[in-house]
Design goal:
The longest helix has 29 residues, at 243-271. This protein has one domain: Growth Hormone, Chain: A. The chain contains 16 helices and no strands. α4 (56-67) packs across α6 (97-124) and α9 (211-238) runs antiparallel to α13. It has helices at 3-26, 31-39, 43-54, 56-67, 71-92, 97-124, 131-158, 170-192, 211-238, 243-271, 273-299, 310-322, 327-337, 344-372, 375-384, 387-395. The protein is mostly helical.
Length: 399
Amino acid sequence: MTKQNRQKAIYLFVVVLAFTALANGLGSNIFSNYFNEVFHVDEVQRGFIEIPRESPGILCMVLVAALGFLGNIWMSVVAQVLVLVGLVVMGWLSPGYGTMLVFLFIHSLGMHFFMPLNDAISMDLAEKGKVGETLGKFKGINTLFAMIAAVIVFLGFRTRLFSFEKNTILPFVLAAEVTAGAIFLLICMAQLMPQSGAVKNHKLLFRRRYMPYYMVTLAYGCQKRIKIVFAPWVVINLLGQGADTVALLTIVVHLAGTWLAPVIGKLLDRLGVRKMLWMEAMYIAVSFSAMGLLAGMLAGGTFDLGDGLTWLVFGAYVLCVLFEQFNMVHSYMMRSIALDPSEVTRTLSVGLSVDHIMAIIASPVMGLIWHAWGVQYVFYLAALSALFQVAAAGMTRNG
């Protein structure tokens, strides 16, 4: 690929990241409120909904292995088409609960399929010696537009332009439109970039050498339940807040993430994988434990919405969700230990599947733990999973 074509591809990919971040912010990030206000689910049902939502992550390694001949860009097109189909049905057709779960699955399949491809394309576009910095910049762009989506969601629900009471759910409709834009731009990128990530061997790829990567993705599957399910559910269920408040907190998260992502990327190039895994483990252990303590006090009636301690809950929520910025460390680690560049995308997809096997197990289990013993133990369990990052750091060379 010529330098000029690479630069054009980078510009196009930046816009693709912006569009996919907007679609995710307008769609996936309001699912908790969608489930609560349209289908009136309780905490146990909320945990079990994660099975059709997260099980597509397991299929990613199968899809990447089966469609690997297409290369990363064309596989990304397929992924975004699946996202578009799910959004169209949920946005325009007002499905019943059962039908919603089917198209939630299709939407989620596309989103999860795109995740390893996103990281692989980002690293393909990086200059030598600046992989971490490039990942950080792309993550920062993604986070910035996710924040813009959160602002749109906040203003939309606060002004009642958006509502779950209408047959047409406008945020999902807008998400579908920008997803269509992302599909068009990915097709344009395919004309500029040589086919990357394409493989002739369609077997699933497992290597003992990649065990540290599998370990951190296993832990991440548990930890991500806090970001996606249980931290928002504390705000929605225990504090009784609507989509506008969740969106406002999401704005704060993304504002902080826009700054944090490039910092993590630069530290990754400077400090190496091992030290960054230790840093990630410490961050997760402290932030999740703090949220667990506060959520337990809130559930026990120690304080309520009008109390000053509520602001600490909001602060702990932001810190818990912000841990997502460390995910680039895992992709960087995989690239650094890969035996061959052609194995990166396939191994990232296997890691994503490992992550989601844990997610499918952890979500209902955590929902039952919340119901039986208390919300705080959900967060303490997730904090304990940071030991996997520590173990992976011990198995990884600092590079």
